UniProtKB/TrEMBL annotation, chain A:
It is found in: Cell inner membrane. It comes from the Bacteria. The lineage of its organism: Bacteria, Pseudomonadati, Pseudomonadota, Gammaproteobacteria, Pseudomonadales. The keyword Transferase does not apply. This is Urea ABC transporter permease subunit UrtB. It is a multi-pass membrane protein. Pfam families: BPD_transp_2. The chain crosses the membrane at residues 20-40, 52-71, 77-97, 158-178, 212-233, 239-263, 275-296. It comes from Marinobacter salinisoli.
From TrEMBL, chain B:
Residues 386-411 have a biased composition (Basic and acidic residues). It is found in: Cell inner membrane. Its main location: membrane. NCBIfam families: urea_trans_UrtC. This is Urea ABC transporter permease subunit UrtC. InterPro entries: ABC_transp_permease, ABC_transptr_urea_perm_UrtC, LivM-like.
Length: 308, 411
C-alpha cells in the first residue's frame, strides 16, 4: 500500500492525515469519556449514550434558533450557553433514568445493555416525532468560521480546533474531578469495594446517580460540540456507539488516560489508512486490528492491575 | 412400565408442549392463513432458529452474543450464492458484457467469478457451507476469546464489533457481495422454481421440520450432562473450572452450536424470502434477535420460538398501520422484558398459568403423587403445597423453570 511514495511524501501524507484524524479523535474522546466513567466506574453499558449526545445537539440547535430570533446581538456567544444547557438537561435526564431504570439493574450488566438499547429506540423515535427525520444543522457565529494556516499543506479549521480544545479541557476537568476531588475519591472507593465504602459512610446510591448523570451530561456537551462540525439527525448517535465502546474497551475500561490513548490511536490509524485505502476498508482494518489486540490483551491497553 | 420411553415422553407435560407447537405450526397456521401470510410466518420461523441458539448460548451458558446476525447472514449468503449462480446461466445473462456471472458483478466491472464463489456451483458444497462457515467463524472467535477468559460484557462488545466489521465489508465490497442491495433475483433451487405459492408452502414445511430438528438437538444438549455443566458454568464459572472441566471448550461448543442454528435459519430465510441483504446481518438486526429470545424466555427453547413469532408478527402488524409506534413499542419491550419479566413469556407462563392448570386438572404424575396432596385427604392438617416438589426437583428448577419439572427421566 505504500508503493510509489517516497519517504518524504509519506511523511507529509502522515502529517496531513494525522491532522485530519484529530477531529475524529476529539469526537471519540468526547463520546468515550462519558461512556468510560459510566462503564468503567459503574459497570453499566449505556447503549443510549449516543441518544444523550443527540439530545445535547438538539438543545444547541434550539438555543441557537432562540438566540437568533430574540437575542441577535448576543449570537456570537450562544454556544457557551448552549453547552451549559446541554450539560444540565442531559444530566437531569440521566438522573431520572438512573432512578427509574438503571438502579434496579446493577450487577446485571448485560441486562443494562438491553434495557438502555430499548431506551435508545424510544429516544430516537421521540426525536423523529418532535424534530422530524431530516438532519438539522446550526448556524455558526462569524468568529468560528475560517481556518488557521499552519503549513502549506496543513490548515486547521477554527471550529475543529475549538472542538478539540473542548474535548481536551473536559478530559482535564474529568481527571481533576476523578483523581483530585473528594467526590472522585468516593466514586473510586465505591468501585473498588462497595460494602466497605458504605460502611465508612459513603452513600453509594447517591454516588451512582451522580456518576451516571455526569456521564450523560458529558454526552450532552459532546453533542453540543458536534453541532459545530456536522449536522444532527435522530439516528446519528447510533452510528458512533460501536466505535465508542470499542474505544473504551480498547483503552481499558477503568482508565481515563487509556481511553484518550486508545481514541488517539484508533482515530489516527483510521485516518492514515483512509488515504491509502477506501474509507470502508480503512474502517474494517482498524476494527480488525483493535479486535485482534483485544484478543491478546482482553483487559485493554491500560488496565488496572488487579488480581482475578 | 411397558410403554416405550419415547411414547411416554410425548404423553408427559413437556411432550405436550412440543405437540401443541407442532399442531400450531403444521396444522393450524397453514389452514388459517393465505399463502402470503404463511410465507411471512415461515420468515419469522427462520429467526426462531437464531433464538433457540441464543437460549442455549445466553440463557443457559450466560454468553451474550450480539453478533448472531453475522452467523444468520453467513448461512443466508452461502445459500444465496448458490441460488444466484444457478440463476446466472450464460443464457439468462446474455445481455451482460460478461455472460455467466451474477448481474451485480457485471455492473461492478468484474469479468470473472471470484475464487471463493466457484465452489458454490455445487449444491452439496453450499449445504455444507451453510453450517460450516458460521461454525468456523464462531470457532475462531470463541477460541480466541474463551481461552483467554474474555466473557460477559467484553465478549458482547467484541461480537458487536465483528458484526460491524462484516456489515461494512459486505456493503463495501459491492462487486463480490452485491453491496447494500444484497443478493437478489433468486429463482430456482436445483431447477425447482422457489417463487411459486406451492414451492413456498413446501419450503414452509421444510422450515418447520428443520426447526423441530434443532429443537430436539437443543433439548438433547440441555438435558445431557453437558447442558448441566453449561448451567453450572453460568452460575459459578470458577467452581466448574476448579472441578476440572475445561470451561473454554464448553463455551466454544455452545457458541458454535448457536452459530450452526443461526446459519440454518439464515439459509432457510434466503429460500423463503428470496433474497439476502446486509440489513439482516448488522448490529441492529443482531440486537433484535436477542429480544426474540428474551421475550420468549431466555431459559426456554420453546419460548424462543414463540418469542420470534410474536415479536415479528407484532412488528409486521404495527409497522403496517403505525410505523412510528413500532419503535416505541419495541423500546418498551426491551425495557419491560428486562425489568419486569426477565424470564419472558415462558417465565410468566410458569408463574401464572401453570399453577392454575395444576388446580384445574391436578395432573400429578404417578411417581410424584405424594399422599399429602391427594384430593381425597382434605382433613389432613399437613401443609398441602400447590406443587409437590421433591428436593432434587427444586434444585433443578433453577435451571429450567418451564420444561424440566415433569420430565420423566428423573421420576
Amino acid at each position: 500500500m505504500f508503493d510509489g511514495y517516497t519517504t518524504s511524501e509519506l511523511m507529509s501524507i502522515f502529517a496531513m492525515q494525522g491532522f485530519a484524524g484529530l477531529s475524529l479523535f476529539s469526537v471519540f474522546v468526547l463520546m468515550a469519556l462519558g461512556l468510560a466513567i459510566i462503564f468503567g466506574q459503574m459497570g453499566v453499558i449505556n447503549m443510549a449514550h449516543g441518544e444523550f449526545m443527540i439530545l445535547g445537539a438538539y438543545t444547541t440547535y434550539i438555543t441557537s434558533s432562540l438566540f437568533q430570533s430574540y437575542l441577535p446581538g448576543w449570537f456570537g456567544g450562544y454556544f457557551f450557553v448552549a453547552m451549559i444547557l446541554a450539560f444540565l438537561i442531559c444530566a437531569a435526564l440521566g438522573m431520572l433514568i438512573e432512578w427509574l431504570m438503571i438502579r434496579h439493574l446493577y450487577h446485571r450488566p448485560l441486562d443494562t445493555l438491553l434495557a438502555t438499547w430499548g431506551l435508545s429506540l424510544i429516544m430516537q423515535q421521540a426525536y423523529r416525532s418532535i424534530f422530524g427525520a431530516r438532519e438539522v444543522g446550526v448556524e455558526l457565529p462569524e468568529w468560528m468560521m475560517g481556518a488557521i494556516q499552519v503549513t502549506d499543506l496543513v490548515e486547521l479549521p477554527i471550529n475543529g480546533l475549538l472542538v478539540m480544545i473542548i474535548a481536551l479541557s473536559i478530559a482535564v476537568a474529568l481527571y481533576f474531578l476523578m483523581y483530585r476531588s473528594g467526590y472522585g475519591k468516593k466514586v473510586r472507593a465505591v468501585v473498588q469495594n462497595r460494602p466497605m465504602a458504605e460502611a465508612v459512610g459513603i452513600n453509594s446510591s447517591a454516588i451512582d446517580r451522580m456518576t451516571f448523570a455526569l456521564g450523560c451530561g458529558i454526552a450532552g456537551v459532546a453533542g453540543s460540540a458536534f453541532t459545530m462540525i456536522g449536522s444532527t439527525g435522530p439516528s446519528s448517535g447510533q452510528a458512533y456507539i460501536v466505535d465508542t465502546f470499542l474505544v473504551v474497551v480498547f483503552g481499558g475500561a477503568q482508565s481515563l488516560i487509556g481511553t484518550i490513548v486508545s481514541a488517539f490511536s484508533i482515530s489516527q490509524a483510521q485516518s492514515t489508512m483512509e488515504f491509502f485505502l477506501s474509507g470502508s476498508m480503512a474502517k474494517v482494518l482498524t476494527l480488525l486490528v483493535v479486535v485482534g489486540i483485544l484478543m491478546l490483551r482482553p483487559e485493554g491497553l491500560m488496565a488496572l492491575k488487579v488480581r482475578r | 412400565m411397558s410403554t416405550p420411553s419415547a411414547l411416554k415422553w410425548f404423553g408427559s407435560r413437556e411432550g405436550i408442549y412440543y405437540l401443541i407447537l407442532a399442531l400450531l405450526l403444521v396444522v393450524v397456521l397453514p389452514m388459517a392463513l393465505d399463502p402470503f401470510r404463511l410465507n411471512l410466518v415461515g420468515k419469522y420461523l427462520t429467526y426462531a432458529f437464531v433464538a433457540i441458539g441464543l437460549v442455549m448460548c445466553w440463557g443457559k451458558a450466560g454468553i451474550l452474543s450480539l453478533g448472531q446476525g453475522i452467523f444468520f447472514g453467513l448461512g443466508g449468503y452461502c445459500m444465496a450464492m448458490f441460488l444466484k449462480l444457478e440463476a446466472s446461466t450464460p443464457e439468462a445473462t446474455a445481455i451482460q458484457s460478461t455472460p455467466g456471472i451474477p448481474d451485480f458483478m457485471d455492473w461492478n466491472q468484474l469479468t470473472e467469478l471470484p475464487w471463493f464463489w466457484v465452489p458454490f456451483n455445487s449444491f452439496a458444497f453450499a449445504l455444507f457451507a451453510v453450517i460450516a462457515v458460521p461454525v468456523l467463524l464462531a470457532f475462531i472467535i470463541g477460541f480466541a476469546m474463551f481461552t483467554r477468559r474474555v466473557g460477559g460484557v467484553y465478549f458482547a462488545i467484541i461480537t458487536q464489533a465483528v458484526a460491524a466489521i462484516l456489515t461494512i465489508l459486505i456493503i463495501g465490497q459491492q462487486g463480490y457481495t452485491g453491496g447494500v442491495n444484497g443478493i437478489t433475483d433468486l429463482r430456482t433451487l436445483l431447477g425447482w422454481d422457489i417463487r411459486t405459492d406451492n414451492a413456498k408452502m413446501i419450503l414452509y414445511f421444510v422450515c418447520v421440520g428443520l426447526l423441530f430438528l434443532c429443537l430436539f438437538a437443543a433439548k438433547a444438549v440441555q438435558s445431557s450432562k453437558l447442558g448441566r455443566i453449561l448451567v453450572a458454568m453460568n452460575a459459578q464459572e470458577t467452581r466448574v473450572r476448579f472441578s476440572g472441566y475445561d470451561v473454554a471448550a464448553f463455551k466454544i461448543f455452545v457458541f458454535c452450536l448457536a452459530a450452526a442454528f443461526a446459519g440454518i435459519g439464515g439459509a432457510m430465510f434466503t429460500l423463503i424470502v428470496g433474497f439476502m441483504s446486509p440489513s439482516f446481518v448488522g448490529i441492529v438486526a443482531s440486537i433484535e434477535m436477542v429480544i426474540f429470545c428474551a421475550l420468549g424466555g431466555r431459559l426456554s427453547i420453546l419460548g424462543a420460538v414463540y418469542g420470534a413469532l410474536l415479536v415479528n408478527a407484532a412488528k409486521s402488524g404495527f409497522s403496517e398501520s403505525f410505523p412510528e409506534l413500532w419503535l416505541f413499542a419495541m423500546g418498551a419491550l426491551f425495557i419491560g422484558v428486562v425489568m419486569a419479566f426477565p424470564n419472558g413469556l415462558a417465565g410468566l407462563y410458569k408463574d401464572y398459568v401453570m399453577p392454575l392448570e395444576e388446580r384445574l386438572f391436578r395432573r400429578t404424575p404417578k411417581a410424584q403423587a405424594a399422599p399429602a396432596v391427594a384430593p381425597d385427604a382434605p382433613a389432613q392438617p399437613a401443609p398441602a403445597p400447590k406443587k409437590p416438589e421433591p428436593v432434587a426437583d427444586s434444585a433443578k428448577a433453577d435451571y429450567d423453570p418451564m420444561l424440566d419439572h415433569y420430565s420423566p427421566e428423573k421420576s
